[in-house]
Structures are given as structure tokens and as C-alpha cells.
Amino acid sequence: MCDEDNRNTGLATRAVHGSTTRDAHGSPYTPIYNTTTFAFESTADLLDVIDGKRRGALYTRYGLNPTIFALEETLAGLEGAEAAWAFCSGMAAEAALFLTHGRQGIVCIGEAYGGTLELLGAQLPQLGIRTHFLLDSELDQLEALLDDGVRLVFLETPSNPTLALLDIRAIAERAHARGALVAVDNTFASPVNQRPLELGADIVMHSATKYLGGHSDLTAGALMGSKALLAPVWDWRKNLGSMIAPETAALLSRSLRTLVVRVRQHNASAQAVAEAMARHPRVARVFYPGLPSFVGHDLARRQMHGFGGMLTLEVRGSGADATRVADRLRLFALAPSLGGAESLVTQPCTTTHHGISAQERARRGISDAMLRLSVGLEDTADLLADLEQALS
Ligand code: PLP
């Protein structure tokens, strides 16, 4: 399928047919070119690729490898982007984004993944990059920071672990009015449930380790956006050496073919689990964008196409009670990741937010009795039975 045809198809079709490169034997998908370098017929031919006159395979660390080209075409199609770059991890994608577009200052709005907060709070300032953090309740300070020269707004929505939502369109309008770019970590939602570029964001970032990979068996990252904004990221990725390996690229391409059906099932099961937990006498609160009682529900209906597979519940009782529930779950494995076929549970105060003081957790609305669930692809009835036995 040619690029142009592909762009006009639905998301599931793009997920299956995103890759346009076929080999000489007619393989329907691009094979794994597990090679570091590629040979040329002549120096003139080699120079055409080096000088960018034609896209060709050259050297895998540069991303100039057919298996990586195929993956990137699919990734771009899924977010409705002109271009995509693949990386060896979500953090590698973020680092390249910040080093390219964040050198004049970055403001991170709302909650974000712990590694993001550490990179922004501890490492980038060592390079002289100014970084700022605004909670949703402090958004009135955004214009002052942008007027002071900050050029990149970074946000994650829904975010970890309270599933709090941010209004991408409203933030993009405010940032663009001051000449700043907006990048969104779309890991929790996946492009099936939310496409930030359609809402006005400039760049989308993914930890492809999660829903895009979908099987807890690969580590990868991605950036999607316009050719103009992604072009300067290329050199940072190349020289930081943060390229995805061809075998991982092929595995991720394989996973993307089922992304849409997987995410729809995650959504349906998480909605059922959220509704059951909201009625459970041992559960004080459920945080899930698909519940009409959830504070961000109206915004979720406006900017999301599905409510996702992640939810957080607050057990009635103490942090120790929540720990007991987590330890008693059998189908939900106690592991700090998300987006795989298997269901996972984490207690934020013992994992993702363990390094943050109890006071700061409270300021961010994160209680010790919270359990974050990544609802997998098992039968929903079995997941509900597992939660029931652990809570009882
Ligand atoms: N963004 C989010 C929302 C995440 O959950 C994670 C990892 O958990 C990352 C970024 C970092 O991704 P990776 O582990 O692939 O580097």
C-alpha cells in the first residue's frame, strides 16, 4: 500500500498496513534486517544517501535500516503525523526531545512519569537547562513562564497514578499564543484512545514499552510530529546512540498490527472493572476517566476516543490494607509497568512514588491506600473474581 492510500484509511487498517516496504520474495511485512551496515553499487550512489538526496539503508545506528523505516511509517500513521522516529526506550525519546526542543526551558504540567520528573528535575538542570513544574492548579502561572522564555510545554494525560486529565487543546492554544511548542506523553492513552496532534499538540512521545509493544517483552520509544520539528531530533538520536535495534523494531511492528483490537479490549475490561470497584464496599474511590463520577469525565469524552486500560482504586483503610490487597492478588501481578496482555498492580507509595515524601504525595492527591491497575487481556470475569477474593 502506498503512503498516500494509507493516510486515508482507518486506524486499524493503518496499524496492519502501515509498513510499505516489501522484500524481493513478496513478504507481506518488512523482514528483520539484522545488519549494521549496507553496501552500495558506487560512491555516487553512497553519496546520494549520505547527502539525503534519497532515503536509503546505510547504517543502523542512524536509523537508516529498512526494518526501522517500516516501523516508523506505521508509528507516524497511527498518530496522524508526517513523521516518526523510533528509539531504544521511552526515556531515550524524551531525552532527545528535550535536548532538541527544550534547551531554552521546559515546563512540565501536571503529573508525569517518575523518570520524566527525574530527568527534568535532576539531570537537565546540570546542563544549564531550566525546567519548571506546574500542577494543574497552578496553570495560571503558565503565561509568565512562557513570557520568560520557556519554549517547550510537556504534559502527560491521562497521568499516573490519579488518571488526571489535562485539556490538550486549551494548553496548546495558550502555548502557541506565546510561540512555545507542546509535546504530549501519550503512553497511557495510546493513539487508539487519544491523538494529541489532532488536538493541537506539536509532538507526541510514547514509551512503546507499554501499549504499543503490548506484551511486556520489548523496550522502545517513539516521537511523532511534523517533518520540520522531527528533523533536528535526528542528529541527537544518531549521536546519543539511542537507536532501536532491528529485532526490537520488527517485534514492535508485529505488535502494532494488533494494537487497535488489544486496546479496545483493554478499554472494555477496564470499564467493567472500574464500575464493579466503584460499587464495592471495601473500595473508597475509583479513578477512571470512563466513570461519569470521575472529575475529568467530560474532558475525557471530548478529547479521548476510549477511556483506556489504566485505573486506580483507593482501598477503604490504610496503606498497609492496600499492601495486603496487592499481595493477595493472583492474576494481577505485582509489577511496575503497564499496557501488557497480563494484568498488573502497583501501589504508588511503594513503587512509582516511593521516592517522594509523604507530604508531597498528599499535595499531589496520591494516598497510600491507592492501587494502580493495568487491566490486561484476561477474561474480565476472572479479573473481577481475583479482585473480589483479594478485597474480601
Ligand atoms: N512515560 C510513561 C508514562 C511511562 O510510564 C514510562 C515508563 O514507565 C516512560 C515514559 C518511560 O518509558 P521507558 O521505560 O520505555 O523508557
Superfamily (CATH H level) name of the largest domain: Type I PLP-dependent aspartate aminotransferase-like (Major domain)
Specify the number of helices: 16
The largest sheet, given as strand count, sense and whether it forms a barrel, is: 7 strands, mixed
Helical fraction: 25-40%
User: Overall pLDDT, averaged?
Assistant: 95
Number of domains: 2
**Percent strand:** 5-15%
Structural summary, described in words:
- With 392 residues, the protein is an alpha/beta fold.
- The chain has two domains: 3-256, Type I PLP-dependent aspartate aminotransferase-like (Major domain) (Aspartate Aminotransferase, domain 2, 3-Layer(aba) Sandwich); 259-391, Aspartate Aminotransferase, domain 1 (Alpha-Beta Complex).
- Helix content is 40%, strand content 14%.
- The chain is built from 16 helices and twelve strands.
- The chain has helices at residues 3-7, 11-17, 43-50, 66-79, 90-101, 114-123, 142-147, 168-177, 190-193, 227-240, 246-256, 259-278, 297-303, 319-328, 358-363, 380-391, and strands at 83-87, 106-109, 131-134, 152-156, 181-185, 203-207, 221-225, 283-287, 310-315, 333-334, 344-346, 370-374.
- A seven-stranded mixed sheet has the order 1-7-6-5-4-2-3, with helices on both faces.
- Strand 2 (106-109), helix 6 and strand 3 (131-134) form a beta-alpha-beta unit.
- Helix 4 packs parallel to helix 11.
- The longest helix has 20 residues, at 259-278.
- The protein is globular and about 75 Å long.
- The model has no long low-confidence stretch (mean pLDDT 95).
- The site of pyridoxal-5'-phosphate (PLP) has 13 residues, from helix 5.
